[in-house]
Amino acid sequence: MRRSSLALIALVLFVIFGCRGKAPDGPAPNSGESWSVTSWGERYEVFAETEPLVAGRSATCNAHVTVLEGFAPLRAGSVTVVLRGSGPDLVFRQVGPKREGIFPVKLEPTTEGTFEMFFQIDGAAGDEELAGGRVRVGTAASPGGVDGDRGVTGGANAMSFLKEQQWRTIFATAPVTQGTLGESVSGPARVIPPAGGEVTLTATFDSTVAPSPWPYTGLVVAKGNTMLRLLPRIGGRSLPDLQADATSLGAEVEAAQRRVERLTELLRVEATSVAELERARATLAGLEARLRSAREGVEAAGGRFGASPGASVVAPWTGRVAEVSVSPGQTISAGAPLVRLVKASPVWIILALRPDDAARVKGRPSGLLIRRPGSPESIQFGPKDLRIISQSPEVNVRTASIDLIVEIDRSVSDLPIGTGVEAELLLPGERRGIVVPASALVDDSGVVVAYVQIEGESFARKEVHVLARQGEQVLIEGLTPGERLVTLGGGAVRRSALLSSGAPEGHVH
Question: Which fold has domain 155-193+345-509?
Answer without folding.
Answer: Elongation Factor Tu (Ef-tu); domain 3 (2.40.30)
